[in-house]
Design a protein that fits this description.
8 helices; 50% helix
Length: 189
């Protein structure tokens, strides 16, 4: 691997799958992204994901773009849960006290952050996840809306393996001028 940051291909694959739910959008967004490989299967330069996210936002109305990206995050979480987290660990997570399981997952995210954050800096502690220089916040002018829907949905989907009532929402966003993206983890009681 070169010095350029790479991420897992599912960020791209699952956003494209989400675009398939909006008739006629995938081809238009793909052309706007100027990416060459339609279905990556190996680690990809994070710049590819940045370009795809920028194309989604440039091509679709703002509310639709963020909905597609959040759906891509949910799909990524579902894929990772099914194909990257071993069944015995999923079984254990479902039976541990929720806070223990969430703490275990946050530590696993720490070890594997490079696969989803690329050159971004991830940290998950307690009920907060921070992501500085998130690929979804790069490029383009400052934003008036938070841009972490992809990551909030992905984190939430995975954390629900341990805590079905877990909810993740972005509370600060680097694209809006904050120092980093922060996500609050809450649990319904």
């Amino acid at each position: 691997m070169s010095s350029q940051a790479h991420i897992g291909p599912n960020a791209i694959i699952q956003v494209l799958a989400a675009l398939d739910q909006v008739p006629g959008r995938r081809a238009r967004v793909w052309r706007a992204s100027k990416l060459e490989t339609p279905a990556p299967t190996n680690m990809v330069p994070e710049a590819w994901f940045v370009r795809l996210v920028a194309a989604v936002r440039a091509t679709l109305p703002a509310h639709e773009a963020e909905a597609v990206l959040a759906d891509g995050g949910r799909r990524t979480a579902a894929y990772v849960a099914a194909h990257r987290i071993p069944a015995p660990l999923r079984f254990l997570l479902a039976r541990l006290p929720a806070r223990w399981g969430v703490a275990l997952l946050l530590r696993a995210f720490d070890r594997h952050a490079w696969t989803f954050a690329g050159a971004g800096r991830y940290r998950g502690r307690g009920n907060t996840i921070t992501l500085a220089d998130a690929p979804t916040c790069r490029g383009g002018p400052p934003a008036s809306r938070r841009r972490g829907g992809y990551y909030a949905a992905a984190f939430e989907g995975l954390l629900r393996l341990a805590a079905p009532s877990a909810s993740v929402r972005e509370i600060t966003c680097q694209a809006c001028g904050d120092d980093r993206c922060r996500f609050a983890i809450t649990f319904e009681t």
